[in-house]
Amino acid sequence: MRRDSKLSGVLHVLLHMAESTGPMTSEDLSKLMQTNPVVIRRIMAGLRDQGLVHSEKGHGGGWTISCDFNTVTLRDIYEALGSPEIFAMGNRSESTECLVEASVNAALTGAFEDAEALLLARFGGVTLAALSTDFHARRVKHGRVCTVSAAHKA
User: How far apart are CA 149 and CA 37, in angstroms?
Assistant: First the structure.
């Protein structure tokens, strides 16, 4: 089963955008995420609706950051993406008359809810600024310059 990597990809793109000296086009961003520019525009539109990014059309236009990295958390980004399902696992049937399945559902549902609450709390404790700080520390440690092409060398 393929994992949903949209959150990871959007965080990746936002950090690159923060390092950019100007707007980045959907084509530029699509290369980072190895996807179609239409997919990027759709994702970025949701972030724009939440006030996290801004777009300008035309020559010299593109996407820019419009939020404060010190206050925006991973949870904010997760919610801006529409709060996608966190777990691929779930109950076989949500409504059942079988008492065995009802017991299984009760145990699993409680565990899933606890795990999701913990994960969302952790997301809420990590800001984009913290990710940026970690990136900069890694860049210094590895002695790399910050360009899209340099960041993506094997």
Answer: 18
